[in-house]
Amino acid sequence: MPINEPTLVSDDVLSVAPALRDFMQDDVLDGLWKRPQLSPRDRSIVTLSVLITRNQMLDLPFYLSLALDNGVKPAEISEIVTHLAFYAGLGNASATIAIVKVVFSERGIGTGDLPPGNPTLLPLNEAAEKTRAANVEKNTGPISPGLVQFTADVLFLKLWLRPHLAPRDRSLVTVSSLMAAGHTAQITFHLNKAMDNGLTQEQAGEVIAQVAFYAGWPNAFSAVPVVGDVFISRGQ
Q1: pTM of the full predicted structure?
Q2: How far apart are CA 70 and CA 44, in angstroms?
Q3: What is the mean pLDDT of residues 111-138?
Q4: pLDDT (tens digit per residue) in 47-74
Q5: In the predicted model, is pLDDT for residue 3 greater than 70?
Q6: What is the percentage of the chain residues whose pLDDT exceeds 90?
Q7: Following DSSP, what letter does each residue of 119-152 receive, concatenated?
Q8: What is the DSSP string of 205-221?
Q9: How many helices (DSSP H) and strands (DSSP E) are in the chain?
Q10: Rounded to whole angstroms, how far apart are CA atoms 110 and 226?
Q11: What percent of the chain is helix, strand and coil (3-state, nearest 5)?
Q12: What pLDDT was estimated at residue 143?
């Protein structure tokens, strides 16, 4: 299968599920991806996040190539993989490495195009971090002090401050991953953070539609009431 063709529109699908090929071409590639509520770049970020979270590697070469065509920078893809190591697990992130390496090589992308391991970090919002840390300490500290410490030191004082993926995009990756994995209990905090970082209500709603096709309708519908509660709480 050529890299410019996703699995579900390949000719092989016709021998098994012709209707599936039609749905993929007509309703996904020619429908969903052309809706204006999210830019093609945002849709690529959401889709990569879903595929990596769910360890669905077969179509990853196509969607990596599409992401680059849609304006996602190599450094941003590198940061998406790194970010998802913490939100989808080290194994799922590791599973992408060989695939991304091939796509980068085909595009002439080298290590000079990628972010350094220890860049100058973005400024910390100390008030927001103090509130977050207090809530986590209250709810989690008595149970897992180590988790509290790593959440602060590794995630919010390091990972989230890396500059080669904008805060809004980092939030978009996180929310998409949580929806794809069905982790609805974690959506409230991260969707609020995403909207504080510039994600609009319309865009958040469209993320659910994108997730539906790539992670399944049940995960999308499970996210709906949580997202709706966030909208209400924000007076939107």
Answers
A1: 0.95
A2: 7
A3: 97
A4: 999 999 999 999 999 999 999 999 999 9
A5: no
A6: 91
A7: PPPPPP-HHHHHHHHHHHHHHHTTT-HHHHHHII
A8: HHHHHHHHHHH-HHHHH
A9: 12, 0
A10: 41
A11: 70, 0, 30
A12: 98
Give phi and psi for 211, each to the nearest 5: -65, -35
Using CA atoms, how far apart are residues 27 and 148, in angstroms rounded to an integer? 43
Q: Which residues contact 150 (CB under 8 A, 6 or more apart)?
A: none
55 neighbors 95 (Cβ within 8 angstroms): yes
* Burial of 138 from C-beta contacts in 10 A (0-12 / 13-18 / 19+): exposed
pLDDT tens sequence across 69-105: 999 999 999 999 999 999 999 999 999 999 999 999 9
Residues 6+ apart with CB under 8 A from 75: 113, 114, 115, 164, 165
Q: Is the pLDDT of residue 1 over 60?
A: no
